[in-house]
TrEMBL record:
One of its GO terms (molecular function) is peptidoglycan lytic transglycosylase activity. Residues 162-206 form the Transglycosylase SLT domain. One of its GO terms (biological process) is peptidoglycan catabolic process. Residues 32-55 have a biased composition (Low complexity). This is Murein transglycosylase. It comes from Agromyces albus. It comes from the Bacteria. InterPro entries: Lysozyme-like_dom_sf, MltB-like, SLT_2. Signal peptide: none annotated. Residues 17-57, 135-161 are annotated as: Disordered.
Amino acid sequence: MIGGLVTFSEPSVRLAAAPLPDDTVQNPAPPSTDTAAGGSPASSTPARPASSRAGGNSGLVDEGWAIEQASRTGIPLRALLGYAGAELALGAESPDCRMGWSTLAALGHLESGHGTHAGSALGLDGVARPSILGPELDGGDYDRIDDTDSGGIDGTSTTDRAVGPMQFIPSTWATWGSDGNDDGVADPQQIDDAALAAGRYLCEYGDLSDAANWHRAVFAYNHVESYVNAVADVARDYAARTSG
């Protein structure tokens, strides 16, 4: 219900001042869980280990900002870089959309636990391993969707199922699939690609700083009102936990 949707201010992303070196990122420890509900978690900055973060959208994001926000929110750093990088890319590509990274992060949390569903994890390259595959959409617990990709990205040639950290149906990925890490491949299992595709999909609904447009966009992503409310709650919590 649009009238009952609590609005929130999307936190801003800090743009990287220069191309980042290869020894920058790793998932930080989760925030402290002993804070009161709605309080701010501990924000100590994790040690900086070696990595090989690729270019593309994640390289647009300021390293120090990303580490700090990952620590504050508990979002794995590689996932947060994907969401924040998508916001920056979309800010240049579709400035009137006003896509916010905390909305993408809320979707990623609900769809796959930021790429951790069923024991998966995002590698430093942003790819979920093992691949994240939803249940077959065979008309049992979920509506039936007949196969559209011959099993090419979802591993089944009888029906479809959602794939990757943002849970795209193959037919939707065929329309919105994006290359967010500039490797020449649109891979729904790769967080930069998936976050950019999700953002582009949502931006079709107009200015997302408008509550009605935001509601329509998230409802289109998953046609359940309780899902829209859950996304709003998570996005608002992430926004409250971040710093400028």
